[in-house]
Amino acid sequence: MGTRKGKFILLASFLYVVKNCAGQMTTIVGHRGCGTSEAGGTSPYPENSLYSFKKAVDENIDGVELDVWLTKDKQVVVIHGTDDGLLGHTLLYDEDSQQKCIEDLTAEEIQSYHFKEPWILNKGRRFYQQGSTASGVSTVEMENVATNHTEREGIISHNDNNVCSCSSGHHHQGGHSHGLRVKTLVKNEEEQVKFATLSRSEKLRKKMEYADYGQPYINMEENEELEKLFNEGSLQGSFSEEGEQSSQGEEQPSQGGEEPTYEPRQSRRERRNARMSEQLLEGEFINSIKCSFCKELYTGYVMKKNYTLKKKKKLFKFLSKFYHVPLLKDLLNLYKDKLTYDIELKGTKEDLGVHILDVLENYKQYKFKFSSFNWVLQDGQMEKGSEQEKSAEVSPAASSPDASSPVASSPAASPPAASPPAASPPAASPPAASPPAASPPAASPPAASPPAASPPAASPPDNVQQADLLKPLRNNKLNIPVALLFSDDEVMPNFVSILSTMKYYNAEWAHFSYRSFMRPVVMNGNKRNKIVTSANHFIEMLHNNKKKIMIYWGTEDKDEYEDLLLYIKMGVDSICPNNIDVARQARLHASSE
C-alpha cells in the first residue's frame, strides 16, 4: 500500500513539474504567419496569406501574428500595408491603385489583387545564402531560388518577365517550364551582407526594386497538397462559396461530443453570386474570373482534372483564396483552433475593434489576443507627480541596484513601486501609430523633447488626435487579452507611465522590439531627464506586476539564433520571429539546459 501511495505521489509531482514547465515555456508566434515577404523579409510565402498561415500550422508552432484593417465596406481584411495606409508591395495591382488607401477600398477591390512573389525568391536571394529561412531550409543556394514545400527543399529557377502560365505540376514563367526538383544545397562560406546593415538609401533602392517587380506568386506543389486535403474532405466547407453552408450563421453540432463548429453566415451578395456561378458553363465561368493569373491557374491546372464542373469550380475557388488577401473570417474558418491568433489592429478607424469583436463572437472557443501601436499614454498620477516635483527632486541613492548609470546629468529613477511619474505630457511618449518614420514623439513642450535617435520627419498631429484603436477593446465582452505594442525608435515611457497605461487598457501584455533590450533601456524621467536601467530589471519589473512580455522581430530583421536564445533564457513569455525554424531550435536548446 505504501509503495502504491509513493508511486502516486511521485507521479503527481512529475505531472506538476511538467505542467509548470509547460506554463513557463516561451511560446512561438509566427510574424505575419511564417515571416515577412517584403524587401528585407525572409519568408518564401507571401506574408499574411493563407499559405503563410498554413506553414505555421505545418510547423506546429503555437500561433501567428496577423495585421488587420477595416475596409470601406466594413470588412476586416488581413494585410500589413504601409506606414501611410497604402496597400504596400506584396500585391500586384495597377497604377491607379498605387496611391489608394486600404481604408478607402472595398474588400472585393483588395481581394482582386494577386500576391506577388516574395522578395527572398528573387531580389533578395544574395542576402540570405546562409542560415535558415522561415520555410525551414537550412541553407539557400542563391544561384537558383530555394524554397521549401512540405518538408522538401525545392529549387525554382525563374526570370523577371511578368508572364505566368500554369500547368499540372509545373510553373511556367516567360515561356519556360521550371518544375520543382530536390537538390543538395552547397553552403556558401563567404560572409553575407545583411539587409538590416544597409544604409537607408540602399534599403530604399532595394524596396523600390521590389516595388517594380511584377512576378505573381504561384505554388504548384502546395496546390497539389491542398487538392489532396480538399478531396479528403478536411478542408471542404472552409469557405462559404457555394451557398451550401448555413445562411443563418448558427452553431452546428459536431460528432463525438466535440465543440460545436460555427458555419459562417453568408451575405446576400455572396449567396447571389454563388447561385449565378453555379449556372455558368465552364467557358463562361473562366471568362468570369477577374484575376488573369488565377484564370491561368484554372485553365492550366483545375480544368485538366477529371472532376464534375461543380467540383472544379469549388476546387478553383478554394485554391484561389490562397493567392489573395484573406478576410479574417476566412482565416479562422480554415485553420480553426490549430493556432492562437495575435491580431494587430492597424489604420485610423477606431471602430475596427468593434467589427473584429463582431467577427470573433462566432469563434469563442479559439484563443486570441489584440495588439496595436495606436494607443494613448495614460498616467493617472501625472498631477500628483507634478506637485511632488515642486517640493523635492529624486535622490540618486534611490535608484534601483540593477539599474545602469543615468544619462549625463539625469537623476536616477526609484524602483518601480516608488518611482514618481514622468513630467512629460501624454502626447510625448506613446508608441508610434505606424512604423518609425511616421511617428516621432511630439517636440513642443520642453519636458518632451524627442529622442536624438528618432529619424527626421514631419511632426505628427498631437497624440490626442491620433486614432486609439485599443480603446474599444478595453474590458471587451469576449474577455480577449490586450497588448500594448512599443516601438524601438522612441525613448521608453517610465515604469509608472507604462503600468498606468496598461491598467487603463486592462492590458496583460507588452510587446517590444528585439532591439529594445540588446542594450540598457533608456526611459523618460522627470523634466528633461532620462533614466537608464538594465534589461533584466525592466523585464523583472513587468513580471513582478503580473504582466507578460512578447519580443518581436520587424520586417527587415533577420532572426539570429543567439538573439532568440538570449530572450528565451531571459524568461520572456513569447517571441514573434520571422524565422520559426530557428526559433524552435533556440527554444529546444534552452529547454535542454
TrEMBL record:
**Gene Ontology MF, one:** phosphoric diester hydrolase activity
**Signal sequence coordinates:** 1-23
Q: Where is the GP-PDE domain?
A: 26-133
SUPFAM superfamilies (alphabetical): PLC-like phosphodiesterases (SSF51695)
Chain intervals for the UniProt region annotation (Disordered)? 237-273, 384-464
Signal listed as a keyword? yes
Q: Does the keyword Signal apply?
A: yes
Protein keywords: Signal
Biased composition range(s): Low complexity: 237-259, 395-412
InterPro entries to which the protein is assigned, alphabetical: GP_PDE_dom, PLC-like_Pdiesterase_TIM-brl
Which GO terms of type biological process are on file? lipid metabolic process
Instruction: Give residue spans, biased composition: Pro residues.
Output: 413-459
Q: Which domain of life is it from?
A: Eukaryota
PANTHER family hit by this protein: GLYCEROPHOSPHODIESTER PHOSPHODIESTERASE (PTHR46211:SF14), GLYCEROPHOSPHORYL DIESTER PHOSPHODIESTERASE (PTHR46211)
Q: What is this protein called?
A: (malaria parasite P. vivax) hypothetical protein
Organism from which the protein derives? Plasmodium vivax
